[in-house]
Design a protein that fits this description.
The structure holds 2 protein chains of 2 kinds.
Chain A (H helix, E strand, L loop, with lengths): L21 H4 L7 H30 L3 H10 L1 H34 L5 H9 L6 H12 L6 H6 L8 H12 L1 H14 L2 H8 L4 H30 L2 H7 L9 H10 L3 H33 L1
Helix pairs in contact in A: 2-14, 3-14, 4-8, 4-9, 4-11, 6-8, 6-12, 8-11, 8-12, 9-11, 10-11, 11-14, 13-14
Chain B lengths: L12 H28 L3 H8 L2 H34 L5 H7 L2 H4 L2 H12 L6 H4 L10 H26 L2 H9 L4 H30 L2 H7 L9 H10 L3 H33 L4
Helix pairs in contact in B: 1-13, 2-13, 3-8, 3-10, 6-8, 6-11, 8-10, 8-11, 9-10, 10-13, 12-13
Classes of the chains: A mainly alpha, B mainly alpha.
Chain lengths: 298, 278
């Protein structure tokens, strides 16, 4: 936010306000107090009802029956299996999309070629496909009656209703996150620094490692964190391909669903609270990365 | 754009583009093609029977109607929040700014059960709404609430950067020419924000139409009343009716592609209007 603290003395601030925005200091860009109060009141009420209360509800419901029930729900073997599977999925999906994101951003930002805009649109495509349809796609390709179905059965390879299907569906839904973060960042940084490095004799990987990577590390971190949050939290796509086998093919969100449908609300919210903590952690990292890039940008 | 590829001293073009295309093809394009190829196996009558059956049509009405309404609500309140976050100082502003992205980071299933807990007849909000005759959880209104939740950040995050970049000179000029605050907003500021606002609206709408996880818990999934279209695909899949599931999926995919094109157009318009890419 643009809070100009250094210039505070030069501008006659309204009494009683320590930090104002540049808009509030200017008579031409500020509203009457009552209008401001209405806008703030409506905005914050909406924020409280639609964002804050759902987040708080997760933790309140998780602890409703006390800490014992909470810990028990997390120590349940099925819950631990779900946590392990969720971690495994993220550990496979995120690095694969990381390599892809860097490759895609390198080719798009550092070179000119025909069809670039189309490629960017195609990379965005998974964002606009319903998660349920993502699951359906993989069922049509790898399911028992799918394209490779009979071949997979002959060779005793299970993809649908097994871990590989869960990983594939997760890769699809998290596909654009890192590329989407890196492409505009690397485009904005231009090519001069890399070109200088090449002219000075740096080899390909040296250029990337010593010139490009230090410039994009914060954006990269943010992309990875977002990708990871979505990978661990994906529900719709994974739900279609998982088969919901307890202890085997249940990820954390699916485990939450099963507990919830069995009316074990406190346990469902206990597992959900872990995912909510992950979400809050993601937002903290995001704010920190934004603060860093903002500070370095000026 | 005359040359297909201008010469560059930088290495790795073939490798990075080749890898990008192969990965994109394997993970996204081939599986997506499977949906269309599978649909081609159906005759037109079979396809039409599935996608126009009364239960499916009722689900379109709910999915598209609730998504449009949710996107509209988000356009209004997202705009208010973006305005407050850019223009006003108030306690807790940084935390609120960070939490706006919560729907991006919170798994949809978690959002779904949390919203259901809030709006259930004995929930924090449900207990006050129920006596007034307003039923949210396990009713179409619940679908709307879930879709408002997941769509909010799209509007705030598209409008906010445009508002931040806005120079005060325009408004100063308007004020010095005698415009009152409302006129300045309506004739000067709002037209600049409009492309971004429409982009945010379209993004929220597109996301809402395909949303599944947060909706199914609160919707109650009553046939003909509170079933969303993605759920119709799931129902068909559970009956091993892959043809039916695929037919409905194609309708949704075609709609998504049209919307994607519209969003690309809106973003190009925003860029022309404000010199900023979203």
């Amino acid at each position: 936010m643009s809070i100009v603290i250094g210039k505070q003395a030069l501008v006659t601030a309204a009494p009683g306000s320590a930090a104002q925005t540049r808009f509030e200091k200017n008579r031409a860009t500020r509203e009457p107090v009552w209008v401001k109060r209405i806008i703030l009141g409506l905005g914050l009420t909406f924020f409280t009802i639609f964002l804050l209360m759902p987040l708080l509800a997760v933790f309140v419901e998780a602890l409703r029956k006390g800490l014992d029930v909470y810990w028990q729900a997390l120590r349940d073997p099925d819950a631990i299996a779900a946590i392990k599977l969720t971690l495994l999925t993220a550990v496979i999906a995120v690095p694969l999309n990381l390599v892809f994101g860097i490759a895609a951003a390198w080719s798009i930002a550092k070179f000119d070629f025909r069809g670039k805009q189309l490629l960017i649109t195609l990379i965005d495509l998974p964002f606009s496909v319903s998660p349920v349809i993502v699951g359906l796609m993989y069922v049509l390709v790898f399911g028992a009656s799918g394209w490779f179905g009979s071949w997979l059965i002959e060779n005793d390879i299970k993809i649908i209703f097994a871990v590989p299907g869960i990983v594939l569906a997760t890769i699809f839904v998290t596909f654009p996150f890192i590329a989407r973060e890196l492409i505009p960042l690397m485009q904005a940084q231009g090519r001069e620094e890399e070109e200088a490095a090449v002219v000075l004799g740096a080899r390909g990987w040296q250029v990337f490692w010593y010139v490009t990577l230090p410039n994009i590390k914060w954006g990269l971190l943010y992309g990875v964190i977002l990708c990871n949050a979505r990978a661990m939290g994906e529900f719709g796509a994974v739900s279609v391909v998982s088969g919901h086998i307890r202890g085997l093919t249940n990820t954390m969100p699916l485990h939450v669903e099963i507990l919830y449908n069995e009316y074990q609300f406190a346990a469902a919210f206990a597992v959900a609270s872990l995912l909510a903590i992950l979400a809050v952690f993601t937002l903290v990292i995001k704010s920190w990365v934004e603060y860093r890039t903002h500070k370095l940008g000026h | 754009m005359a040359k297909s590829r201008s010469y560059s001293v930088l290495p790795g073009f073939g490798l990075s583009l080749g890898y990008t295309l192969v990965y994109l093809g394997l993970i996204v394009l081939i599986p997506m093609a499977a949906v269309f190829i599978k649909t081609a196996e159906l005759s037109w009558d079979q396809f039409w029977n599935v996608v126009s059956s009364p239960r499916v049509v009722a689900s379109y009405k709910l999915s598209f109607g609730a998504s449009l309404l949710a996107a509209a609500i988000n356009a209004v309140f997202g705009m208010l929040l973006a305005w407050a976050l850019v223009r006003y100082s108030f306690p807790g502003k940084k935390i609120i700014d960070a939490l706006i992205d919560l729907p991006f980071a919170l798994p949809t299933a978690v959002a779904g059960i949390a919203l259901t807990a809030l709006y259930a007849p004995n929930g924090w909000l449900g207990q006050y709404l129920e006596p007034l005759g307003i039923k949210v959880a396990f009713a179409p209104l619940g679908v709307l609430v879930a879709l408002v939740f997941i769509g909010l950040p799209f509007v705030v995050r598209t409008v906010q950067p445009i508002l931040e970049d806005l120079e005060t000179e325009l408004e100063e000029a308007a004020a010095s020419l005698g415009a009152n605050r409302w006129q300045t907003f309506w004739y000067v500021v709002f037209p600049i924000l409009l492309p971004a606002l429409l982009t945010g609206f379209a993004l929220a709408f597109a996301r809402a139409v395909g949303e599944y996880g947060s909706v199914i818990f609160i919707a109650g999934n009553i046939p003909m009343v509170s079933e969303i279209t993605p759920l119709m695909i799931i129902t068909r899949l559970e009956q091993y009716d892959y043809n039916g599931a695929t037919a409905i999926a194609v309708v949704m995919l075609v709609f998504s592609f049209v919307l994607l094109l519209a969003i690309n157009g809106l973003q190009a318009w925003t860029a022309r209007r404000t010199g900023r890419t979203l």
